[in-house]
Amino acid sequence: MAQTNSESAPLWLLIWTVNNIAVTLLNKSAFSKVDFHYPYFLSAIHMFCNSVGSMVMFRLLRSHQALMRYEALPMTEAGAVDENSQARLRSNVGLIQSVEAHLGSNIVGVLGNIQRREIESTSKKTKLILYSMIFSLNIAIGNVSLRHVSVNFNQVMRSLVPALTIVMGGMLGRHTSTKRKLAVIPIVIGVACACYGDMTYTTVGMVYTCMCVLLAALKVVASGEMLTGDMKLHPVDLLGHMAPLALVQCLALSLLTGEMSTMLSKPIPPPSHLAIIIGSGLMSFSLNIASLQANKVTSPLTLCIAANVKQVSMIAIATIMFATPIAFLNGVGIAVVLMGSSIYSYISVMEKTAQKQAIGGAVELNKNGQSNA
What we know:
Blueprint: H1 5-31, H2 39-71, H3 83-91, H4 95-111, H5 122-148, H6 151-158, H7 161-171, H8 178-195, H9 203-228, H10 235-256, H11 259-264, H12 271-297, H13 300-322, H14 328-372
């Protein structure tokens, strides 16, 4: 049975964090060890894997639904299952369809009921296209930013994403408690300290980085609206609609920036290098499912806080694994982020518990009122 949102939220945040670290490491391998310096085309590969992954998931779900219909077997006049009909119907289900149905059943158990929705209204189609453009531009502007500023400067600026998320959420009518707002402050400061180092940048780089931060916040808020707003798309369904559009946009960016022509002029990478590139694409599908699902069962702000925790965790992992020297200020920043995220998590749990108790009390009062009447 599918878990409730509050029960599954920590699990999905953990899955998202693990996936995020894995994709980050694979992307770094693709850009450095594999010598695949085509970020836009790599993003297009990611979107291709997301498109195919969504189609495969819906095929497995259709097989599961077909098998469920087979199990609704005819009854005899005595009220027992008609064994002849049972044998005839089950003989129509092949081995491949049985395996697909079993996998589809597992998907339903993990992700809940997934419905493929046709988007017919012009306004909803426009929202979907705009969302795919935000998704693609977030990747493109982020890559351009890193050409003009240091990685440390980029990460320090990105620490402001949770604050922007609060502002954008407020503009959309989403209420954030004062306690949560205060809990975000040490996390933002801690990330800035943890990432502080080579802070070189150009004026053009500053503009691109500000756009990058704005798009990152806009993306996570827009994702929340697509999942819980008037469209209420399931994460798999959202990916199925959005990924093909983003694929075309990323390919266009790759073509316009000259990546495509440069890549085609070089020999095909060896199988081991292709495995890393394709592995990165497959993991991105898992990451996007986990990201959208975590956004749906928590909130855009919580997902931004998780991203900041992942960021400092990567610094800590690199320090331990590769014996990377870390300055005192960076170490203090990591400690502040971990402490701040713990406080934020505690506040989130307490607020959700209070909300549940309030709802439960209202239901109980309603029942008592009806019984007295």
